[in-house]
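Two folds, back to back.
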Amino acid sequence: MPTAGEPLKVQLLGPVRAWRHGREVVLGPPKQRAVFALLAGRANDVVSVDHIIDAVWGGDIPQTAANGVHTYVAGLRRILEPERSRRESGELLISTAGGYALQTDPEAVDATLFARRHAQARRARAEGRLQEALDSAESALSLWHGEAHSGVPGPFAAMERTRLQDLRLTAVEEWSADMLAADRPVEAVTVLLGAVAEEPLREKLRWLLMSALYRCGRQAHALEVYAETRRLLRHELGIDPSAELRMLHQQILTGGPVTSSGAARTGTALAAGGRTSAPEPATTRMVLTETPRPAQLPPVARGFVGRTGELEQLARLLTENDRWGASTPIVVIDGPAGVGKSAFALELAHRLSEHFPDGQLYVDLRGTSMEGRSLSASEALLQVLRSLGVDDDRIPADAASRATLYRSLLHGKRVLVMLDDVLSADQLRPLIPGGSSCVLSTGRQRLGGLAVRDGAHLLRLDPLGTQDALALLRCLSGDRLRRQEAVARRLVGLSGGRPLTLRMMAETLAANPDVPLAALVEHFAEEHGRLDRLASRGDASTSLHALFETSYQALPAEAARTFRLLGLFSDELITVSAAAELTGTTEPEAAGTLRLLARRHLLVEAGRGAYRFHELMRLYAAECAEREPLTHRSAAVARLLQATASVA
């Protein structure tokens, strides 16, 4: 129970509760508690109103959701700071930058405190301080008072329940292994029986339970657990127990010493430091098992420049283990085609490789591939499991079971997982491992749901600034642009700052040393066919036109029609009203479509509800406009002209 001197204490590991100066406060109706739990789980971070709406309502968002958020925040302020007048700004729940933040010591939130104590236990264990590891783990587990986020609605609460439960069971596994190492199997058995009942398919828990029972002299009970495990795995997943469980079963059958090795196939991190027989057990210890160490990152392209601030920010984010505790940091990099997302992610991944000594996995999910359909999560998991040394006959048929096995394999390891060209959150989520690994992904769509439900950090990559673009162009074009500042700047302007376009230009300059620079610049400057000239023959992946086409083809029908009609629009700024007139839709419908096009990076937000095209995308949109029937184009322009005339 919190003491009277503590300003705010929050319980998320059980029913959501809060205490102010030692006295419990009633947090109000379920959705108001859901808003509080979200803000408490991200203490001191600003959470936008849109993220709160997604977290609380999910896909069933009422028109009154934004007003509902403001109402719930006002209710929480009255509860948490009853002494504050309506005109005074709050000290606990503040509004800023289009969102809200709960200002409190992060350790006042039990979920954060649990993660930190768990991390302390891991450090103590790694340094050989067994009793300290046990004390820290027991202190962490004592914070739990039931199912996390109990009684709170919404997709964020549901995801947190699953995530935190997995962390708790991980802590139970590690504590149990330490208890065996301390020769205290009887105490471990009671806890493990409850954990196995909660998560019956978790093989590591069953390995530990069988070991603990055997070391207590309960050989028959240990064999009974194995028989139950085999029946369950065959019935639920259609597979046999892992090699580690089978080995343990054989050792118990013969009454010999218990050892464990090669635990990579189930993610079991236990191996015998000594040998244990039932009557006189010796000590076991936690070690990492020998598994294939993947090194799958493609090479970094020559001439990477710029992005220094973004690289430093993400490097800190992905290597701050204490901040994340046992959860997995996720970074999702989005941006328009040709802006250099993959090159940026690979540069970052190679810089961080030494921080992830257990390897680097790379999967191209082909979300916008020109070579066919994208890779499903199940297909990606099959590819990854094979690269981790799992035989085909041990790989389950369904995606959920493959994801479970994948997370088990990477449990306790530090692996960097790079997922390139992601199409959707559902494609990425099954590939998120647990614990100390990290996920670095790229894609052309803004995946806001991953930030809300999974705590992902989103980074939008914009075109290069002028100086960085000039540096890249000069680096790649050799001596052609020496003392040609005006020409270089003209080319940068024509490129729109996209690294892919700059690379095309540099390659053309280098490949045509006898053609005057002025002629080459005019070759790039001519609008008609410019996109087709920005390509390398025989390599569709370097064609800006082809990349734009894959983004366009992925649009829903109405958004694609809007994009085509916007290609008729010559003004620099596209307003909601102009888009509504062009498309013959209502302004709310047009506003929603414009936002979708901006999320897909086919338009750029220009502020105050207006949008614009990047120059090269404007050329592509004008081409797409020709695909719209002439009668439809004429009608759209007539509607816009009539609306403009009536306003004038």
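---
second:
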Amino acid sequence: MAAKTSTSAALDWGWHHSPATSAALVAGGAYAVAATGSVTGLPPAHALLVAGAGAAAQATADLYQRRPVGHAVARCAAWLTAGGWTASALADHTPLTWGMTGWWAAGAAAGITLARGLVQAEETARTERHQRKLQKWANKRASEWHERLHRLFRLEGHQVDGVRPWKGNVGYTVLVTMPSDTPELPADAVRKLAVDLRLPKGGGIEIRDGDTYGQTLIRVTAQDVLVQKIDLPDGPEDTTVTSIYDGFPLGLKPDAEEARITVVDDCALIVGQTGSGKTNTINVANAGALRSNDTVVMHIDVTGAGISMPWLHAWATDGNAAVPLIDWTADTIEEAHILCDVVIAGIGARKSGHQDLLIEDDKLKVTHDLPEVLILVDEIAELTPKLLSKLDTIVNTGRAARVRVVDCGLRATQDVITAAMKKQSRVRVGMRVSDPEELSHLFPTGGARINPKAAPYKGCGFYSSPDADDVVSDPAAFKAYRITPKQIRALSVTYADRRPRLEDVFLDTEPARYYASRWGRILPRIYKGKQLHHHTTRPYTDMEILHPPIDEFTGIPNTGLVDDDADGTATPRAATGSTPAATATAEAPTKTKRFGSDLLSDMLAAARTIDGKHDQAAPETATVIEADFGRVIRQAGAPQDRPNPVPQLLTEAHQHIVAAGGRIHTGDLATRMDTDPVALGTELNRLLRAVGVERPGKGSVRAGNDGESKAGYLAETLAAAIHAYATRDAQ
């Protein structure tokens, strides 16, 4: 059984005292000893012995810390004075008289004042010594650089205005005012300077323009920050409450400054090949977003909810967190459709329901009561085209409603990243990749000049994000913080109490009726066979678990959202239990008929065979198809001059998949169709390739009672192929 971390308050036994409180404690201790000793007959010599020992220890400490002699003498005198007063009070048995108490109070006040004064004087002296040392170092470096620039580049009339060290002593910046006849350094200056400085591996030179014309900044990296393992800071000062407006850090840049991104206005893209540290970077982004108290974090990961499981552990199994850190995790294609439908409807509800808040800005102001919704999508290449279309809708329409998306994938190529994702994602993060062309495709500016060798280690990458002036900088190298599962569990407990909730306006839509029971659908799938913590999960599962009906033809959950593919918008509709075809028919008089369930129904009706199973077709439109694994051999029926464009094998397979719940393994589908699995898979894949339809997830499907991931098919995939065949025939 896993050990549980207590969340109850604990006593702090640390010595967090200021000099003044320390002096007061010493004075109080002396008074307590005198009062108690006078009653118990404590000899006065004991007080003098203790005072002498304290003075000796104080002198040793001052000598070790190299404090001024006068300060050491004053502290030792304070110890001896306290001991003398205590010995006098013990000898005369008068610690409780007004006279002795008055002397004690005066001595305590003097000791407190003396302690504060000494510490302030020492801090001032220490600061002055540090400034003198730093100035001496800077003057020496400036003289060296003035001579170096003259020697290497024959400069005359240049001036080194200053040298500023970086945090952690990993490098420094040199500010140079160039002569008017030589406004910039030559092209080979970087290499010449690096060789002249004999920089170690991982070090480097970067030359930038200064704030004014003629100024040049030479940035010298003397240590390789990127090679180091940098743990995510998780001390008390590093877990204070933040806001999504502050952005969140990903790691450190080569100059040891934090690499930060902001997603309050812009979406983000994170890409990286397997083994590059992309998952770790995603968890660091999770930690940054969850540290705030005005952000609701949702996940879409149809490969098993891997990015969510570490953050749910403290709530689902340990019971240390009262609420789930991740508000919603879509672990299947179907659940991802439900999540997207709820968010799309919520965007529309926010735009209309919070008009009274749009006074000084056309975008909502994020607060704890009106949080930003941040959707983090991992492995976008595994998503179906329809899901990608819904995500594009969220990306395009969610900015004013404060709904943003972070898309993550293995590659920064056009076949993975949609046009909307790239256009709206001004925040770009590219982890280690094999081909520089991928980084050039990812970053809008400066990507062509990126050298992957500048970030060669695992966990390294490049990032660009808008700055305070909303200007996107050129991509810069960084090393991501390392976050461990142990840290994630501890942070989950810390961040659980600050999690905001979606407001009523966002959830007052038709698709949102499936929001409350989301964990009742999800937990049995991702924690199958594991014991959940009843106390923390029960409030989220002890209710009627709602499952939206699956569309008869597409295999997509019908949450009551009508989306118009023509303009990318979506509106909720009332859930009446009717089929999508019936809804489309009712709308036919008022809108142009588009491809959907109604057209697909007509198309499938034309392909029905007269075998007793489809006797709903009218006799005059009935057709007979003879097919050999999808290849149409002969078709009888109207129209005579054009055979049915949809292969019969594709139609029958789609019907079986819909009957199985929208997803099925290839072996189970072959059993239903009474055919060989290898032959069936080969032919179906050929039919899909013929119209350019790809199976998401490299053909793997989680289906069956155990949810095992094996080769299979989705109803949505076959519906897309049917659509493609019908469209191709019409064209």
